[in-house]
Amino acid sequence: MPPSLIFVGADEIMLDDARLMHEKLLLAGHESDMTITKDMWHGYVLYDLKEYDHDFAKIRSFLKKHIAGQKKLRWMTLDNAAKIFPASRSRSWSNVFRISATLYDDIDMKALHDALDVTVRRFPSIAVRVKTGMFWYYLEEIPKAPDIMEEKAHPLSRMPFDDIRKCAFRVIVHEKRIAVEFFHALTDGNGGLVFVKTLVSEYLYQKYHVKVPKGNGVLDRLMEPSEGELEDSFKKNAGPFPASRKDTDAFKISGEKESDGYKTNVTFVLEPDEVKKRAKALGVTVTAYMAAALSLATLNIQKDKGSRKERTMPVKVLIPVNLRKIFNSNTLRNFVLYANPSIDPRLGEYTFEELCEMIHYQMKLQITRKNMAAMIATNVNSEKPLILKITPLFIKNVVMKLIFNAVGEKKSCFSFSNLGFVDMPKEFTDKVERLDFVLSVQSASPYNTSLITYGGKMNLNIIRNI
To answer: Measured between alpha carbons, how far is 94 from 122 in angstroms, rounded to an integer?
Structure first.
C-alpha cells in the first residue's frame, strides 16, 4: 500500500472504519498518518473551512514528500526566438524583464510561498531551468518552487547563468510589491503577464480566500496545460517565403556607463483617458502616439550632439508585436516579432503630428499577417540546414554571439514594448493597486522603454544604465 494520510471527523459514522484502516496499515509496516477532528462531519476537508487551513498545509507537505521526488520532469526545446538569448548573454548582461503587482497591503510571505507552489505546477513552460545539451540549450521543468527573494539590489540586476541553470525566473518581494523577473528565453511580456496575474490571483486566494474568476489572463489553477500553451508557434506559422533581413543602422544614445551594472528606472504615471483622447484626435493608436513622443525626444538628443545633418542617423524605435491575435495562438512561450518604424533626420525637422502619422502608417504596413509570416520564415529557415543541426553547441554559441554583437542591436535606438490595457475583475482590482512592466537595458544600448495600463493609470517605464 502507498503512504496514506487520513482525515476523519470525530462525529462521523466512518470514524471506526478510519481507525481500523490506520491501525492495519501500521501493523502491516506501511506509513500512515491520521487526523481526527473534533465536532466535524464526514468529508469536512472538502468544505475548505478557514479554521482548518492547517489540514491543507499537511496535505501539501505530504504530497511534496511522496510525489514531487518521483515526478518525471518535463523538458522542451527552446522556441525559435529564445535560441539567441543564452548565446548572447555576457558577464555583465542577461536579457531579463520584470512584471510586478503592487497590492494595498504588505505581502504575507507564507501565503505567497503557498501560491507560488501551486502556480509553478500550472506553468511547465515558464517554471523551468535552462539546461545545456549537445546541440542546443533546452528547458527542463523545475522540481519545486524557487525561494522567494527580498528586494535588496536594484531591479533587473544581472541574472547569472549559474542561477538560470537552477531556475530561469525569480520572485522578489518588497513591502506591498510582488515582482517576477523572467529570463527572456522562457517567454515574452504577454506570457509573463499571464504568469504574474495567475500567481497574484492564487495569492489572493491563499491570503484572503478571494477567488478571482479565470479569464483575462488568469488560468484555472487545476487545469492541465494545453498543448497550445506549450507549442513553439513560430514553426507552426512560418510563411512560404522568407523576408529580407536588410536594414540600416540606427542612432545610438551614448553616455558614461554606471558602475557595478547599476540601472536607473524612471516611471511616468500618465492618465490613460487623456493619452487615448490625444492619440484619437491625431488618428493614431496609443502605441504609435507614445513611440512618436520617444522618437521626438531621441531626435532632439541627436540634434543636441551638433552633428552635421548629412551625418545624422535614422531614429528607430523597435516595437514588439504580439502575434497571438494575428495567428490565433494561445502559446505561453515567446511569440512576438517587431515593427521598426524609421525617421530620417537628414530630411529636415519634424512636427510631433508628422511623427505620429509616419509611425502609425509604417506600423500598419509592417504589421500584417503575410509580412509577419515572412519574417517568421526568415528566422525558422535559419535553423533548418543540416550542418547547423549537427554543429556542437559551443560552436553555435560563438557564431550566434558574433552575429548578435555585429548586427543584433544596431537596427534600432531602443525597444518600446506596450502590454496595453489590463482589464481585471473586481476581485483583483480591490486588492491590487498597480501593475508595472520594466524591460532591462539592451546589451549595447543604454536605454529601453515599456508601458502598461491598469487601474486608471498608464505607467511608462524608461530604464537606463548611463
So the answer is: 26
Give the number of other Cβ atoms within 10 Å of residue 128's Cβ. 26
DSSP state of 330: -
Classified as helix, coil or strand, 304 is helix
From 78, 89, 173, select the one nearest 132 (Cα to Cα).
78
Which pLDDT tens digit goes with each residue over 200-218?
Answer: 999 999 999 999 999 999 9
In one-letter notation, the amino acid at residue 390 is I
Say what the pTM is: 0.85
Say what the pLDDT of residue 92 is: 77
Query: What's the mean pLDDT in 173-188?
Result: 97
Contact 383, 238 (CB under 8 A): no
What one-character DSSP code corresponds to residue 66?
I
Instruction: Characterize the bridge pairing of strands 169-174 and 128-132.
Output: unpaired
pLDDT reading at 50 higher than 90? no
What nine digits make up the cell of 260?
557595478
Is residue 48 within 8 A of residue 211, CB to CB? The reply is no
pLDDT band at 112 (very low <50, low <70, confident <90, very high): very high
For residue range 281-333, list pLDDT tens digits in order. Answer: 999 999 999 999 999 999 999 999 887 888 899 999 999 999 999 999 999 99
d(CA 232, CA 273) in angstroms, rounded, equals 36
Phi, psi of 426 (to 5 degrees): -60, -35
DSSP 156-175: T----HHHHTT-SEEEEEET
The residue to which cell 494575428 is assigned: 326
CA atoms within 13 A on the CB side of 124: 19
Amino acid identity, residue 260? D
**Segments of 135-234 assigned E as strands:** 137-141, 149-150, 169-174, 177-183
